[in-house]
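Per reviewer request, we include the raw input and output of the structure prediction for the construct analysed in the revised manuscript.
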Amino acid sequence: NNITITYNIIGGLSPDAQYPGNGNYGVLFANGSTGALTFNTIALNYNTGVVVQDDDSWLHARYNIIALNDSGLDNSGGGQIFNTNNLVYNTDGDWCLLGVCTDYLGSVEKGSGEINQDPLFLDADSGDLRLCIPGLGNCSGKSPAIDGIPAADFQPVPTGGGLEADMGYQELLAMPATLLLGKEGNSCGLGSAGVASVQVGLVYVPDSSVSASQTPPSSWQNATLATAGEAGSYWTTDVTPASGDGLYRLYSRPADAVGNVSATTSDWYRAAFIADGTPPAVSLVAPIAGMTSTAPAVTLAADVSDWTPTGLPGATSFTVDDVTFLVDSVVVTATRALTTASPGEVQLYTAEVALDNGTHTVSALATDL
């Protein structure tokens, strides 16, 4: 069990032209099946999109498009469906030919962040389930599934996908841009005294609004040159962020073989980075010690905190990358449940897991960026 189904199109047009859909359920969890559906497009099914059919089965459904089926999410036969951040739209009379025409059946209700609007597929009649944007094909509007997942609920967004992820099987990506800078022609080296040395300085910056030219290093260390005396050289050195967590700026000051050194601070500045040497604080919230349960799935929960200074006065950033639970030494991935908090407040991570009868041990582990 613990099946994960992700980035798929489930459904499609029936070979029988009189029926839109494949004549079956899109996804069926039964006989004690458990798992997760993420980033799928479950559409054009002649029957229900997602079904959990018995008390021993459950699933998580997140970031999916479940649309143009006879019905959407159904646990009327038993079991549990944990649904958030989906687009669920199954009330279009042209597609729900069995006449159910509803988004939720059984005890399933609209989840947090869910959208109940037409997904605006490019051409559903032909089975083209790409998402509409103005100017593409016959599209007159933008699909609500595009950028439909708040940035606080899912990261990282695929490269080129903007600031927020799309629901469904495919992220809409921007076209790559090619930049050609400078005039075409042959370069000509006129001569060089050669690089003789490079000095490196690291500076802690409590206020990033202060320009790099105003925060020069107070001390320098020598770097090692790969090709000393040549017109150019790579250099290496180790630096230690000695002032704690927060924003640091890196400077380098090269000199050539005849002693020429730039005297302009802005010419020395190379890069900035956030140092974070403090591990996350983790506190197991559920289950509590000694708890007993007869439910088919047990909720795991942990409070996690790791706030790192960003360089803006008084500002911090939540820098936890990953949280997992260890259930009898088996890794269970957690999902961030509390997505907004003031700096310093804990964030809640949760998961559900099916357990056999007996005694079990649970712990939580957090990893920062």
